[in-house]
């Protein structure tokens, strides 16, 4: 059995690579005091809009030892979702790249469960919980602390070698693993993401006013889209990739190798006129296992009608 903290770190990173993760980093489980203060300020300014869940479980969200009692280490992982061939946007409406294929939550959780089972056979029994964007975990902060990348001006985690088109995941465990440290912020004086955002949602370095964000409006917001978004949607009907697409570091993005993230043929063939005539039946067929099902048929239809009436008459 392997118990040495440094050997455990090496084992985890080599195993994660075999399971398809781009990178793996380790942090000591505990409180993120600075991030807690920033989150508190964020909530006070109502930048979370209707994402009320962000205010829930504040102590657990900012201290992993309260979320997972007895935890000693946070294992952060990145899983690539950059497509080899982005869906053609000519005569089409736009969907965020992360939602092209099947729902990443269950796919990555399944991979992590298999990985943990293998590790148990090598390390022995250990306690852990797996998280994939589904619990009060400050994912970007932990990925930053473990040296996987830095948080850019657009509040996304960015890596020097492959940009930012990654899903983040965590294993919080009672294993004592040698921690890594954060790396330098390489955004420099670049402001491309700030200048490209059509709704001016990036209000300051690393701070996005969620209530102004197109991704928030098309996914999280349950009410009618505000007038402030009129003429600014740039044909995004689910999510938005603008602040990532313009980031210079994403010129290094490499195609993923996960077949379940590939879009269906029918999704790639639909055009603007088809989206305008979208039915519940077609929605259910195309998005049955997709992250897009989160907005439901009524929500996507609302987005499409808003765009076609206000953006592309």
TrEMBL record:
Its cofactor is cob(II)alamin; [4Fe-4S] cluster. Catalyzes the conversion of epoxyqueuosine (oQ) to queuosine (Q), which is a hypermodified base found in the wobble positions of tRNA(Asp), tRNA(Asn), tRNA(His) and tRNA(Tyr). Keywords: 4Fe-4S, Cobalamin, Cobalt, Cytoplasm, Iron, Iron-sulfur, Metal-binding, Oxidoreductase, Queuosine biosynthesis, tRNA processing. Monomer. It comes from the Bacteria. The gene is queG. InterPro entries: 4Fe4S_Fe-S-bd, 4Fe4S_Fe_S_CS, QueG, QueG_DUF1730. The active site is at residue 133. Belongs to the QueG family. This is Epoxyqueuosine reductase. It comes from Planobacterium oryzisoli. It catalyses: epoxyqueuosine(34) in tRNA + AH2 = queuosine(34) in tRNA + A + H2O. Pathway: tRNA modification; tRNA-queuosine biosynthesis.
């Amino acid at each position: 059995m392997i118990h040495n903290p440094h050997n455990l770190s090496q084992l985890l990173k080599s195993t994660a690579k075999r399971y398809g993760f781009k990178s793996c980093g380790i942090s000591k489980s505990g409180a993120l005091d600075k991030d807690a203060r920033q989150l508190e300020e964020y909530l006070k300014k109502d930048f979370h809009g209707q994402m009320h869940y962000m205010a829930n479980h504040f102590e657990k969200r900012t201290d992993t030892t309260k979320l997972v009692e007895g935890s000693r280490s946070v294992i952060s992982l990145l899983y690539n979702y950059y497509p080899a061939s982005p869906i053609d946007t000519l005569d089409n409406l736009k969907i965020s790249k992360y939602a092209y294929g099947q729902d990443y939550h269950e796919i990555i959780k399944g991979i992590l469960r298999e990985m943990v089972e293998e590790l148990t056979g090598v390390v022995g029994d250990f306690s852990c919980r797996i998280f994939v964007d589904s619990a009060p975990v400050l994912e970007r902060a932990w990925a930053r602390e473990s040296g996987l990348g830095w948080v850019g001006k657009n509040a996304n985690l960015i890596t020097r070698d492959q940009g930012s088109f990654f899903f983040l995941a965590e294993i919080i465990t009672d294993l004592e693993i040698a921690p890594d440290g954060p790396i330098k912020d390489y955004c420099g004086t670049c402001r491309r993401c700030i200048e490209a955002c059509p709704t001016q949602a990036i209000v300051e370095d690393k701070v996005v006013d969620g209530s102004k964000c197109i991704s928030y409006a098309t996914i999280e917001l349950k009410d009618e889209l505000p007038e402030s978004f009129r003429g600014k949607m740039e044909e995004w009907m689910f999510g938005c990739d603008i602040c990532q697409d313009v980031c210079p570091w994403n010129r290094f993005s490499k195609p993923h190798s996960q077949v379940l993230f590939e879009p269906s043929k029918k999704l790639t063939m639909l055009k603007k006129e088809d989206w305008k005539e979208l039915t519940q039946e077609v929605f259910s067929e195309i998005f049955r296992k997709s992250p897009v099902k989160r907005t439901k048929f009524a929500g996507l239809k609302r987005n499409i009608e808003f765009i076609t009436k206000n953006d592309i008459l």
